[in-house]
Recover the amino acids of this structure.
C-alpha cells in the first residue's frame, strides 16, 4: 500500500509538472501486483512493466530510481539494491529512513512536488554529477550495508566488550 500511495501522489502532484518541464522524460513503473488503474495510464511517457523477472536487469536499464514513499516503515531493500548498482535514487525522506544518505551526495531527497521538480532539474542540468552520486551510493553500500562490512563491525564491537 505505501508504494501505491506514493506513486499515486507522484502521478497527481509531480508528474503533470515534470512532463511539461521535461518533455523527454519517461517514467517506468514496475512491481508485483501493479494495480490495474496504473495500466490505464500507459502512454509514450509512462511505461507499465508490472512484475519483472529480473529486478537487477531492470534497474540497470534505467538511469535512476524514483521512490516517492509517503508512509511505511523499515529499510527499503530495493533502494539498497539500486544504490549497490550505482544508481541515483530520488526518494522522499520517509523512503530513505534507516539509510545513511545525504542529498546530492549519495542520493536525491525530495518531500514536496517542488523539491521533486528541483531534483529532476538537477539531474537534467548536471549529468556529470549523477555519475558521482551513483558511485557514492555504491561505496556507501559497500562500507555500511555489505554483509562483510557488517560482520566486521559486529566482531569489532564484540572485541571491544572484552
Amino acid at each position: 500500500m505505501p508504494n501505491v500511495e506514493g506513486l499515486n501522489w507522484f502521478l497527481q502532484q509531480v508528474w503533470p509538472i515534470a512532463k511539461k518541464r521535461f518533455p523527454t522524460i519517461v517514467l517506468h513503473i514496475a512491481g508485483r501486483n501493479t494495480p490495474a488503474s496504473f495500466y490505464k495510464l500507459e502512454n509514450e511517457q509512462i511505461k507499465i512493466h508490472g512484475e519483472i523477472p529480473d529486478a537487477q536487469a531492470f534497474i540497470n536499464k534505467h538511469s535512476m530510481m524514483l521512490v516517492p514513499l509517503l508512509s511505511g516503515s523499515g529499510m527499503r531493500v530495493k533502494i539498497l539494491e539500486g544504490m549497490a548498482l550505482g544508481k541515483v535514487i530520488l526518494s522522499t525522506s520517509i523512503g530513505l529512513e534507516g539509510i545513511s544518505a545525504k542529498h546530492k551526495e549519495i542520493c536525491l531527497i525530495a518531500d514536496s512536488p517542488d523539491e521533486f521538480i528541483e531534483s529532476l532539474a538537477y539531474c537534467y542540468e548536471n549529468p556529470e554529477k549523477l555519475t558521482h552520486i551513483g558511485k557514492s551510493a555504491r561505496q556507501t553500500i559497500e562500507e555500511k550495508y555489505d554483509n562483510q562490512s557488517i560482520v566486521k563491525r559486529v566482531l569489532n564491537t564484540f572485541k571491544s566488550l572484552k
Summary: The chain has a mean pLDDT of 89. DSSP finds seven helices and five strands in the chain.
